[in-house]
Amino acid sequence: MASVTFRNVYKRFGDVTAVNNLNIDVADKEFLVLVGPSGCGKTTALRCLAGLEEISDGEILIGDRVVNDVAPKDRDIAMVFQSYALYPHLSVYDNMAFGLKLRKVPKEEIKRRVNEAADILGIRDLLDRKPRQLSGGQRQRVAVGRAIVREPKVFLFDEPLSNLDAKLRVAMRAEISKLHQRLQTTFIYVTHDQIEAMTMATRIAVINKGVLQQLDTPQNLYDKPNNLFVAGFIGSPAMNFFAGKLRKDGGKLLVDTGDFVVPIPASRAKPYESHAGKDIIFGIRPENIHDADFIPPNIDAEKVSVKVDVTELMGNEIFLYLVSGKNTFVSRVDPRSKLRVGQQAQVAFDMDSFHIFDAATEEAIR
Amino acid sequence: MPSISQTFDSLRSSQKFQKRFSIAIRLVIAVILIVFSIFPVLWIVSASFDPSQSLATQTSLIPSNASLQNYQRLFSKDPNYKFGDLVFEKWIWNSVKISGISTILSLMITTMAAYAFSRMRFKGRVTMLKGILLIQVFPNLLALVAIYVLIFQTGEIIPRLGLNTHAGLIMVYLGGSMGMNIWLMKGFLDTIPRDIDESGMVDGASHWQIFWNLILPLLRPILVVIGILSFIGTYGDFILARILLNDVNQYTLMVGLQIFTSGQFDQKWGVFAAGALIGALPIMIIYLALQDQIVGGLTQGAVKG
């Protein structure tokens, strides 16, 4: 068990800066998820922590110890690889015992730990098999088991679920969460899947182009994204964005997108006053756009005329792809909605839940 | 008009016919190839049982006066017989020894070099790889004189590595076989995911432990292939051994056998054929023993499959 600290960490490959001034403090026993699009540097950051890549600048600490020059084997970490990286010629038992054997752990102790880990993961009856005789999900468990038996201070996961099918992924997600509660160890988990990040993390670090965008709890990331990238990355379907202007009209602050105009409620207007007349990006999540016939009570609804372009029936909800002038956007409406493709209709924006970003800096205005 | 089911039936039977026809063609081709490649072997077998010692008079595959005379002469120590002082068993042993040792040494060097080329990033890596390839372009034969002088000079300083020594010959073989094998081995190593190395690294293994415990077992198929190729290559080599060895007791099988055919009016083709057949035994034994090992797909299951 230990904290992990990235302090001004840089990693450069030639001219490319994969990790750019990364600063993260991971508390002991925390489940931190690094999330971002492909090639954003999240895996590189994890590999730097594991010691598989040397950092170009800065410091990485595990506990109180600077580990910049410490070999991977001496960092007291365990890593689960995306490809599982099981040793194909060794049985499941030997795969799990390999690290312990190298560390000259007594045979009895190895046996106890492997069996214990196998019990946790439900792979006790697979111990004699070779990796090629296992299914994807079972290999995944062995890879996790290999990490558990080491009893490391920090667990590293590099997109461990991306090779599993959708159903198994959901199940393993829950299991890894359970494992974290049970082991009470620091977990650092890399994924490109924001749903994995949202469901498992105690805190999420959103990374883009090597730069940390925001580090916060899942709920805060969702409710208060710092910038346009985080707002667009977290949530599915993604937040809708409308380029527009803030306009002042008779004491009222209006968002003018060119195709429609919505007023900002007086109660929320204050932070935006100073941006009146400037270019902004107006963001609203699909679930905050309602069918005008099914507006929930007690919200500040603002109606906008749209044309329905595509409907996607999900059963418990309907995704409507809407067009208003040059803007296309998604709304997630009540399943009873009668709106159909091609219809002209009215939808209601919930003006209690919107986001406004500075068009130039793409930072949130609060 | 035929019904749909009838059309279907005729289509199916014609497909069946096509299938049988293509199998028949393949069989014919296979039989031709087998006859083509097995005929010389049969001829040698026949010649080895023919005591007449002449290839010209051999008119049928089954000699009329077949006997084991040639085989007896091979191993005979009869001083009255012209080749009685030759040491056929010794030649076989020499050949097996030289081929065996150079194969094992060459596998060791090749594997370690290929591992370094595949896994480590160092200055001059690409240049060296290209250099190895370039050297391979020139056949060993071109360097014959140079090799002779090299070994001769070496022998002046270290007599055990000089002319007429097996160690010297092994050294030459080692140098010659390495280039292509390193490329072959590196190609195979490159297909083994680096994740395995890195996983081993995190698990606490040193470079050597990763190489020895994790990677080497996965190399078995290519080790067997390179091993066999290199054994056959050295076992069957004539020219280098002929040049570097000059004592009958030091001869390898290939050099020794040639004596039987070198007398101008005294060629013993029958004895030669018998010797060649016995000489082929070690290779056959190795093939049979290792044929199960030549299987790919051992890495299957390492990563997502």
Please give a structural write-up.
The complex is a heterodimer of chains A (366) and B (305). Chain A has helices spanning 42-50, 92-102, 107-121, 136-149, 166-183, 194-200, 218-223, 228-233, and strands at 4-13, 16-26, 31-35, 57-62, 65-66, 77-80, 154-158, 186-191, 203-208, 211-216, 240-249, 252-256, 261-263, 279-284, 289-291, 301-313, 318-324, 327-333, 344-350, 355-358. With 366 residues, chain A is of the alpha+beta class. Chain A has 2 domains: 4-233, Rossmann fold (3-Layer(aba) Sandwich); 240-358, OB fold (Dihydrolipoamide Acetyltransferase, E2P) (Beta Barrel), CATH 2.40.50. In chain A, the strands form 4 sheets. Chain A has a 6-stranded mixed β-sheet, sandwiched between helices. In chain A, strands 13-12-11-14-20 form a 5-stranded antiparallel β-sheet. In chain A, α2 (92-102) crosses α3 (107-121), α2 packs parallel to α4 (136-149) and α3 packs across α4. The mean pLDDT of chain A is 92. Helices cover 68% and strands 0% of the residues of chain B. With 305 residues, chain B is mostly helical. Chain B has helices spanning 4-48, 69-75, 88-119, 125-137, 144-157, 166-191, 194-203, 207-215, 220-235, 239-244, 253-260, 269-290. The model of chain B is unreliable at 296-305 (pLDDT under 50). Chain B starts with a helix and ends in a 15-residue tail after the last helix. At the A-B interface, β6, α2 and α4 of A face α7 and α8 of B.
Structural key phrases:
heterodimer; A: 366 residues; alpha+beta; Rossmann fold; OB fold (Dihydrolipoamide Acetyltransferase, E2P); six-stranded mixed β-sheet; 34% strand; elongated; B: 305 residues; mainly alpha; MetI-like fold; 12 helices; flat; disordered C terminus
Gyration radius from CA atoms of chain B, angstroms: 26 Å
Strand percent estimate of chain A: 25-35%
Helicity of chain A, in percent? 10-25%
Show unreliable segments of chain B: 296-305
**Sheet/helix structural class of chain A:** alpha+beta
- The parts of chain A where pLDDT drops under 50 for at least 5 residues are none
CATH architecture call of the largest domain in chain B: Orthogonal Bundle
Main pleated-sheet profile of chain B = none
Number of strands of chain A: 20
Instruction: Indicate the mean pLDDT of chain A.
Output: 92
CATH topology-level fold name of the largest domain in chain A: Rossmann fold
Query: Which strands sit side by side, in order, in the main sheet of chain A?
Result: 6-7-8-3-9-10
| Number of discrete helical segments of chain A | 8
CATH superfamily of the largest domain in chain A: P-loop containing nucleotide triphosphate hydrolases
CATH topology of the largest domain in chain B: MetI-like fold
Broad shape of chain B: flat
